[in-house]
Design brief:
Blueprint: H1 3-31, E1 36-37, H2 39-43, E2 53-59, E3 65-66, E4 72-78, E5 83-89, E6 101-108, E7 114-121, H3 130-140
Length: about 160
């Protein structure tokens, strides 16, 4: 084999190996990909029936029902237009409560119930440190904070 053909064979083998590695990485990425759907999209049959996905929205007020074992819960997720019942067995996050945001990951059953494997509570996006909230509240009531002792006299 001439040096030119040997170099071409090495380059061709390297490109083939790179293609195989890229195909394996993309396949692994696609199998771990989890999409998000709203209850309205699920009602419109846009969600997959054969693979896991995430559903998100607000936990409907008065919909939380706990099982006798303490781990099984059922609740309803809404996007204010449509609702979907969710069943979950496990420990709920501390921030989980009715009227708050939630994201559940799992599969949609043939009975129309979303069977969650994981439940994530969404925190309030409008979080503010207590000191800042207190200052805003005082400003709304017309109370200006005292600046005495905080300003230095100008020479």
């Amino acid at each position: 084999m001439t040096p030119r053909r040997k170099r071409a064979a090495i380059i061709g083998g390297g490109l083939a190996a790179l293609g195989i590695v890229a195909a394996l990485v993309l396949n692994a990425f696609q199998s771990n990909l989890v999409f998000f759907f709203s209850p309205s999209q699920i009602a419109a049959n846009e969600a997959p029936r054969d693979r896991a996905f995430r559903v998100g929205g607000m936990v409907e007020e008065g919909s939380l029902k706990r099982g006798a074992d303490g781990l099984t819960v059922q609740f309803v997720v809404t996007d204010t237009a449509r609702t979907i019942p969710v069943a979950y067995k496990g420990i709920l996050p501390d921030l989980f409560q009715e009227g708050k945001g939630v994201v559940a990951q799992g599969r949609l059953g043939a009975d129309g119930v979303f069977h969650a494997d994981q439940v994530l509570a969404k925190h309030d996006e409008n979080y503010m440190p207590p000191e800042a909230a207190e200052a805003i509240e005082r400003a709304q009531h017309g109370e200006m904070p005292s600046l005495a002792g905080t300003m230095k006299p100008q020479p």
